Amino acid sequence: MAVNSLVSKKKEKNMEAIEAIMTRRSVRKFEKKQIPDAVLEKIIKAGTYAPSALALQPWGFVVVQDQKFLKKSRITAGPS
Predict the structure, then answer these.
(1) Long-range contacts, stretch 49-52, CB < 8 angstroms, 24+ apart
(2) pLDDT in tens, the chain (80 residues)
(3) CA 50 distance to own-chain centroid
(4) Cα(63)–Cα(17) distance, rounded to whole angstroms?
(5) Number of structural domains in the chain
(6) How far is CA 43 from CA 2, 12, 23, 31, 73, in A?
(7) Which domain holds residue 48?
(8) What is the pTM (predicted TM-score) of this model?
(9) Nearest CA-CA partner of 45 in 24, 27, 63
C-alpha cells in the first residue's frame, strides 16, 4: 500500500472522529420500544472504551427495561 494512501486513510479517520465530536447531541426524548440485547451489549462494550482519569475505568452500567421499575426508580432517585 502506498504511503499516500495510508496518510489519506488516517486523515479520513481523524475527520470522522472530529465530525463525531462536533455533531454529537444529547437526546432526552426516547421511543418506548425494547432494544435488542445484542445492541445493548455492543453499546456497553463501546462505553468501556471511553477514557477515564488515570485509566482506572471505573465503569458501572445498569440496564433497566421494565418501565414500571424505571418510573419507580426515578421517584426514588429524585431529580437529577
Answers:
(1) none
(2) 565 565 567 667 777 888 888 888 888 887 888 899 999 999 999 888 888 888 788 888 888 888 888 888 876 666 65
(3) 9
(4) 27
(5) 1
(6) 35, 23, 19, 17, 22
(7) 3-77
(8) 0.53
(9) 63
